[in-house]
Write a structure and sequence with these properties.
By secondary structure, this protein is of the alpha/beta class. The protein contains 20 helices and 16 strands. It has three domains: about 1-150; about 175-325, Alpha-Beta Plaits; about 340-585, EAL domain (TIM Barrel, Alpha-Beta Barrel).
Length: about 575
């Protein structure tokens, strides 16, 4: 009989495990009830035969043994379905044990015997055990779920961190960090297989114009469009990345010769040139591209990227909308500029600046009526550096305000000695940069310097280039009015070289127009165009009641023409070159 129940139990469990999870609890409950009721029926029949003295010889088990077997089977089945079916199994196991307890109690009441009480206790113990198991399973399940949630969150966090570290959030392209890693891998691979690489550094020309006129959202749309165009126009040998701002950097693998990359660079430039639809309007931009090759232009990632960048700026300097291959001279020039900027930061403290003065002559009287203060730089490493080279560098580095104040202060210090040399109150012309001019705090600095050096503002002529007048018309006009109220006179330097506007010249408080030396040098040209320009500037100045001075006068022919046209103030090598104070004394 024991073997029979064991076989029934085993077959039932196998059938349960073959069914879907949702059906397991119902099937288990049905099988258990059938098993339970069958066993109870046999038990009762066997008990009756014992009472009637009809027990068979081969039945060696008494009722207590059979009840024990049933109880053990029920405990095992209850524990199994709790483990295998979760909440549904727990519910079925509880239900079955409660049913067994109730039926046993009813049986004991009916029979008037307490022989079945151990079975009740066993059922109660089973309830406690399966409750503990169920609680434990819930805790384990909750803990496992918590671990899985943490794992999922960690994976998402790692994915987000990876994207932040490697992917540009706007365009979806690899970012600077990801590109550098990829270039490093590509270099190692190229070393292994003895192949070449190309790095293309591309920058959008005049991108700032779009941001300033249409807003940054329009600028973002442009960057996204350009990114998509670059990806679609290049094959799998290329990796396109956004390096920052409006700069893109592109890696070309498996490069055999220059013509391969040159062809694709032309494709890139053509993609830049295509019109862009912004707010229903067509916008046209261009790009400047620099190219560096591995291993020709560098054997490490830093050098290759830097040299491609240098080439790109060379393309911009040459007029934009073109590409330039790197060459060693560019690196030398860039290194020199970088060093000069570094030296400029300490040039004042190192006492490397000094001033020269070029006299201005009145052709009618032959007298010196003024001098222009000209800045010179004698660097400890490079020696004399041309103002045409270091002034743009100082402007780029944001140093012209401090340098301009140094010039103003030292020129004012020299003014007294200059008046002693020339025996009259000459005009002292001092150039002002845009950075210096728009800084309103400088007004106090200028007044303080005048008070310290005992120089009157009426003896100072502030020279600004023509281009400065058109940066911010209202702001420049406001500052010039303040300078005029203090007593300074205002001169426009290099007139005719930049964006001439008669209306603005009429509105601004200008005292003197200085004709740019290029037109003066062109007076001797046979086509007569420069003569016509100089003649018109002189006539314009007279019509506006503004004085006029010619710069760069070097020949007698130039001088005679200026006299004929009525320009009686000149400055140039024909009379005097720029000189230091000691040289002026020796004249």
């Amino acid at each position: 009989m024991y073997n029979y129940f064991e076989e029934v139990f085993t077959i039932s469990i196998k059938k349960i495990n073959k069914e879907p999870t949702r059906k397991k609890s119902k099937i288990t409950l049905i099988i258990f009830i059938i098993l339970y009721l069958g066993l109870i029926h046999i038990l009762r029949g066997y008990s009756n035969t014992i009472r009637e003295g009809k027990a068979y010889a081969y039945l060696i088990l008494d009722t207590y043994s059979i009840r024990g077997i049933i109880t053990q089977l029920q405990m095992l089945l209850s524990i199994y379905i709790v483990f295998s079916l979760g909440k549904e199994g727990y519910f079925n196991a509880v239900l079955l044990n409660i049913i067994n307890i109730l039926t046993t109690i009813l049986y004991m009441r009916k029979s008037g015997s307490t022989d079945a009480m151990p079975g009740v206790i066993s059922n109660i113990s089973t309830l406690i055990i399966i409750s503990l198991i169920s609680q434990y399973k819930k805790q384990v399940s909750d803990y496992a779920e918590h671990i899985n949630n943490q794992k999922s969150e960690l994976e998402k966090s790692q994915e987000n961190l990876y994207k932040q570290a490697h992917i540009d959030s706007l365009t979806g392209l690899p970012n600077r960090y990801a590109f550098i890693k990829e270039l490093d891998r590509a270099i190692n691979d190229a070393k292994l297989h003895n192949t070449k690489l190309g790095v293309i550094f591309a920058d959008l020309d005049s991108f700032k114009r779009i941001n300033d006129t249409l807003g940054h959202s329009a600028g973002d749309d442009v960057l996204i469009t350009i990114s998509n165009r670059l990806i679609s126009s290049l094959d799998d040998n290329y990796t396109v990345a956004r390096f920052g701002g409006d700069e893109f950097i592109i890696l070309r693998r498996n490069l055999e010769n220059i013509s391969d990359i040159e062809k694709d660079v032309l494709t890139i430039l053509n993609e830049f040139k295509k019109p862009l639809k912004i707010d229903g309007l067509d916008f046209y931009i261009s790009g400047s591209v620099g190219i560096a090759m591995y291993p020709i232009d560098g054997e490490c990632k830093t050098d290759i990227i830097k040299n491609a960048d240098i080439s790109m700026y060379e393309a911009k300097k040459n007029g934009k909308n073109q590409y330039v291959f790197f060459n060693p001279k560019m690196k030398t020039d860039t290194y020199r500029k970088t060093e000069l900027i570094n030296y400029l930061h300490s040039a004042i403290e190192e006492d490397e600046f000094y001033l020269h003065y070029q006299p201005q002559v009145n052709l009618t009287t032959g007298e010196i009526i003024g001098v222009e203060a000209l800045l010179r730089w004698d660097n400890s490493k490079y020696g004399l550096v041309s103002p045409g080279e270091f002034i743009p560098l100082a402007t780029k580095a944001g140093l012209m305000n401090s340098i301009g104040l140094w010039v103003f202060k030292n020129a004012c210090k020299d003014y007294k000695e200059l008046t002693n040399i020339y025996k009259n109150n000459i005009k002292l012309a001092i150039n002002f940069s845009l950075e210096q001019l728009i800084n309103k705090n400088n007004i106090k600095n200028l007044i303080s310097i005048l008070e310290e050096t005992k120089v009157e503002a009426k003896n100072i002529e502030i020279e600004i280039t023509e281009s400065l007048v058109y940066v911010d018309e209202s702001k420049i006009r406001e500052i010039l009015d303040i300078l005029k109220d203090i007593g300074f006179s205002i001169a426009i330097d290099d007139y005719g070289k930049e964006y001439s506007s008669l209306n603005r010249i009429r509105k601004f408080p200008i005292d003197l127009i200085k004709i740019d030396m290029e037109f003066i040098h062109g007076i001797t040209n046979s086509d007569g165009k420069d003569k016509a320009i100089v003649r018109s500037i002189i006539s314009l100045s007279k019509g506006l009641g503004i004085h006029v001075l010619a710069e760069g006068v070097e020949t007698k022919e130039q001088l005679e023409f200026l006299k004929e046209e009525g320009c009686y103030q000149v400055q140039g090598y024909y009379y005097y070159k720029p000189m230091g104070i000691e040289d002026i004394k020796a004249e």
